[in-house]
Specification:
Blueprint lengths: L2 H12 L3 E4 L8 E4 L4 E6 L3 E6 L5 E6 L3 H14 L8 E4 L3 E5 L4 E2 H7 L5 H16 L12 E4 L2 E4 L13 H17 L8 H22 L1
Antiparallel strand pairs: 1-2, 3-4, 4-5, 5-7, 6-7, 8-9, 9-10
InterPro entries: Kinase-like_dom_sf, Meiotic_Drive_Suppr_Kinase
Protein name: Serine/threonine protein kinase
Organism: Neobacillus bataviensis
Length: about 220
């Protein structure tokens, strides 16, 4: 891939044709994409992610706010280097990152669609998180929506919070649910589970953790 040509496409075709906005400081980014050659493939609290039809192996993550978060994510990727469990940072600009595209289906969507999640996926993620800790990072906010399965292996697609301090128990709690509920009751026959059910469990978990944190104070 010619990175200079790709950067030129970002600067001339993508950035002038996308608008990233928010309704309030607590809402996710709203993406307006008027480009004909760039496709929006995701958005989060700070950024939108875009794919060019001629470069399917890379994506661009464009930040719409909180430039300091962009700087922190760059440092996270520099520490991670080139590791099989994560994406890879190829280059960056004032408000965007150029990243290796990770294929796959999230664990969240796998449960909804009835796709089996083998043990090796969980082990792959554990090994990736262990590596991140070994290079001085603190894996934070790892959950079923930012971990994917591709060809039977597990990958972590979002490392933007790995600079944060403290203990985040989301991945440990997900693993407990995997071994105590998913493996014995769902894995073998694994029927599709409606989105409202899975999303309700996710929201219930968040509420449970929030209430428990208050009680522990």
């Amino acid at each position: 891939m010619n990175i200079n040509e790709y950067v030129k496409l970002i600067e001339t075709e993508l950035l002038p044709n996308v608008n990233l906005s928010v309704l309030s400081p607590f809402d996710p980014i709203i993406v307006e994409n008027r480009s004909h050659s760039w496709r929006t493939i995701g958005c989060g609290n700070y950024a939108g992610v875009f794919l060019h039809e001629s470069y399917p192996e890379v994506v661009v993550k464009v930040y719409g706010r909180n430039h300091e978060e962009l700087v922190k994510e760059i440092e996270v990727y520099k520490k991670l280097g080139n590791h099989e469990s994560f994406s890879r940072l190829y280059a960056y600009g004032d408000n965007y990152l150029i990243l290796k595209k990770l294929e796959g289906i999230t664990l969240f969507n796998a449960v909804i669609k009835g796709v089996q999640i083998p043990k090796v996926v969980i082990k792959d993620i554990d090994l990736g998180l262990e590596y991140a800790r070994s290079v001085g990072l603190n894996p934070f906010d790892v959950h079923g929506k930012n971990v994917v399965i591709f060809e039977g292996r597990g990958y972590i697609v979002d490392v933007s919070d790995f600079y944060k301090q403290g203990y985040c128990r989301k991945w440990d709690d997900l693993k407990k649910a995997y071994y105590k509920i998913y493996r014995p009751f769902l894995f073998k026959y694994h029927p599709p589970i409606p989105f409202p059910v899975v999303d309700g469990i996710r929201k219930g978990y968040r509420m449970y953790r929030k209430v428990k944190r208050k009680l522990e104070k």
